[in-house]
Amino acid sequence: MDCKNRIIKLRESTGLNRKDFCKLVHIPYRTMTEWELDNRHAPDYVLRLLEYYIRNEGLMVK
């Protein structure tokens, strides 16, 4: 799965909109937007850390 789809899937799994998700994970809104629009790519370690954090904090609602 590419970066764009992984980020969107992670965010949607929390049930949060982009603004609230950015606040939760302390990533600038503009950066998250660029990742979701596939204009920039998040480093793989960031994606893995986000997945780990969301799973272990019990943030997945779906």
From TrEMBL:
SUPFAM superfamilies: lambda repressor-like DNA-binding domains
UniProt GO molecular function: DNA binding
Official protein name in the record: XRE family transcriptional regulator
